[in-house]
Amino acid sequence: MTGKILVDARGLSCPQPVLETKSALESAGSGTVEVLVDTVTSRENVLRLAGRLNWKGTWEESEQGGFRLTLER
């Protein structure tokens, strides 16, 4: 499947953002997955997971607070 998937993991405690992202990456296979998180710890853990699964990850601070991660493969 290709396309864009959005995972809103704001307000979730670890390891939930990582588990939600892992599920989205596996179902996507390739394309773009955007992940919204609200802590630095979640941001770093999701980016680490993406790297292990050979996805390229970038991030930016969200205007609403937290972070928007863009994962691509």
Distance from N terminus to C terminus (CA atoms, Å) equals: 12 Å
Quantity of strands, as a count: 4
The CATH topology comes to Translation Initiation Factor IF3
Alpha-beta classification: alpha+beta
User: How would you sum up the major sheet?
Assistant: 4 strands, mixed
Task: Describe the protein's architecture and organization.
- The chain is of the alpha+beta class and 73 residues long.
- The protein has a single domain, classed as TusA-like domain (Translation Initiation Factor IF3).
- The chain contains 2 helices and 4 strands.
- A 4-stranded mixed beta sheet has the order 1-2-4-3, covered by helices on one side.
- α1 (16-28) links the parallel β1 and β2 (32-37).
- α1 (16-28) packs parallel to α2.
- The longest helix is centred in the N-terminal third of the chain and has 13 residues, at 16-28.
- The protein is globular, with a radius of gyration of 11 Å.
- The termini are close together.
- The mean pLDDT is 94.
Annotate the secondary structure layout:
Blueprint: E1 4-8, H1 16-28, E2 32-37, H2 40-52, E3 56-61, E4 67-72
Parallel strand pairs: 1-2
Antiparallel strand pairs: 2-4, 3-4
Helix pairs in contact: 1-2
List keywords for this structure.
alpha+beta, 2 helices, globular, 73 residues, Translation Initiation Factor IF3, four-stranded mixed beta sheet
Question: Summarize this, please?
Answer:
The protein has 73 residues and is an alpha+beta fold. It has a single domain, classed as 2-Layer Sandwich (Translation Initiation Factor IF3), CATH 3.30.110. 36% of the residues lie in helices and 32% in strands.
